[in-house]
Amino acid sequence: MSTAAVVPAAGRGERLGPGIPKALRPLGGAPMLVHAVRALSQARTVDVVIVAAPPDEVAEVRALLDSHEVPAEVAVVAGGATRQESVARALAALDADVDVVLVHDAARPLAPSELVDAVAGAVRAGADAVVPGLPVVDTVKRVRAGEVVVETLDRSALRAVQTPQGFRRVVLADAHALAETVDATDDAGLVEAIGRPVVVIPGHPEAFKVTRPLDLVLAEAVLAQRRAERVG
User: Cβ contacts of residue 163 below 8 Å, gap of 6+?
Assistant: First the structure.
C-alpha cells in the first residue's frame, strides 16, 4: 500500500508571536517544517511527502527543503486560507496509486518516525482513521459564559490527540467532500462528522505542538537531548 504524508504549512501561527510563518521558525538550526518533513521522510512506511505552503511562498519553501537535503520525495503545492483547504489541495495533488494518507502538523516538528510508522501501520491493518493520543493529566472542567464551572469531566475517558493522523485515502477524501460546513480542528473531526470510526493509538510525549514561545524552549531541550544521546 502506497502512503503519502501531507503537511499543511500555509498558516501564520500568530500565537507564537509576530514574524515569519510558524512552520518556518528556526529550531536547532533548521526551520520546524524541515524537522517535520525529515521525521516523515525517515519513516519506513512513507513514500512521498506533500507540503502545502503559503501560496506566495511555494518556490521559497521548495528551495528551503532542497537546501536542507530532506531525504525523500517531497512535493510542494500552494496551500489555502484554512488548514482544511490546504489538506484538500494536497490531496488533489496525490498520485492515483496512494492508498494511505497521513496528515501531520509542521508545528509538531519532533514527532518520532516510529510514531509515523505506527499510525500508518494501523491504517494498513484495516482502520479507516487513526490518531495518536496521550492520556489527559490535568483536571478538565467545562465552563459556561462568565467562566463558571458547569462540570468536571472524567479525564480517564479523554485523550490529547496528536499528529500524524492516518486515513484510508478514500475515507479522508469523502470527509473533505462532505463536511465542508463542519467546524473541525483536525481531519479526524471531519471523518467523525461523516460517521466513520476513528481509532486512537498511543501517542508520544515528543510529538507535542509548538504553539507558544515556551514550547520552543522545550523543543530545543529535546533536540539537545537527542544530540547528546547520539554522541553517547
Answer: 103, 104, 105, 108, 111, 131, 132, 186, 207
The crossing angle, in degrees rounded to 10, of helices 32-41 and 58-67 is 60
d(CA 165, CA 81): 21
Three-state DSSP at 6 gives strand
User: Which has the closest alpha carbon to 194: 203, 182, 206?
Assistant: 182
pLDDT value at residue 195: 94
19 Rama class: left (phi>0) / alpha (psi -120 to 50) / beta? left
| Contact in structure between 171 and 129 (CB atoms under 8 Å) | yes
Beta bridge partners of 126: none
Question: Is residue 16's pLDDT more than 70?
Answer: no
Average pLDDT along the chain: 92
Q: Where are the domains of the chain?
A: 2-131+159-231
Assign a CATH topology to domain 2-131+159-231.
Spore Coat Polysaccharide Biosynthesis Protein SpsA; Chain A (3.90.550)
In percent, the amount of the chain with pLDDT more than 70 equals 95
How much is the average pLDDT of 8-31? 77
Kindly report, residue by residue over 195-209, the tens digit of the pLDDT.
Answer: 999 999 999 999 999
